[in-house]
Amino acid sequence: MGMQLIFVVETNKSCNSDWIYIKETIEQFYSYERTQIKFTPIYMDGKGNYIKKQKEVEKKIKQYSATSDKNQSRVIYCFDCDEYDRKQEDLNFLNDAKLFCQNAGYEFVWFCKDIEQVYIGKQVDDSMKKRRQRILKQANSLSQLIKKVFQKSYIELKQVIF
């Protein structure tokens, strides 16, 4: 039996920053049978597009299950919401997105305030996200950063993912 983990992330495919942080975290903390786990990123190109990605998610699930009746998929939507504590519309967005995930049977992950805030402790301008992530990866400091940030909470993360 294979397992496909579909990560629906806010970034676009060319920037890819959210997926790089997530994938690097998985690689840092988990050993898994590479022939049995398939990671599939889907890029929202903005958090407001999460409902529009439903067809793409369903297509990926169908494609994977078509290869074996025993294959399963889990969907994990990853969001951030920069101003949830100051803007009611951002808080409403989070609540709506969480409800969407619950109704669809998907996992809901929220990076407060954004993924860079979680990993490096500060927000990064959108125009600098790809560059910042690339610098960290090239310097091999992304792995060290991930260890530092998640060492204490990796068990909870493992329970969500696997």
Name its key features.
48% helix; disordered C terminus; 162 residues; alpha/beta
**SS content category:** alpha/beta
Helical proportion?
A: 40-55%
Average pLDDT: 77
Gross morphology is: globular
Structure described in brief:
This protein has 162 residues and is an alpha/beta fold. It is built from seven helices and four strands.
Give an account of the 3D structure:
This protein is of the alpha/beta class and 162 residues long. It is built from 7 helices and 4 strands. A 4-stranded parallel β-sheet has the order 2-1-3-4, with helices on both faces.
Strand-helix topology:
Elements lengths: L2 E7 L7 H13 L7 E7 L10 H14 L4 E9 L7 H17 L2 E5 L3 H6 L8 H10 L2 H10 L3 H8 L1
Parallel strand pairs: 1-2, 1-3, 3-4
Helix pairs in contact: 1-6
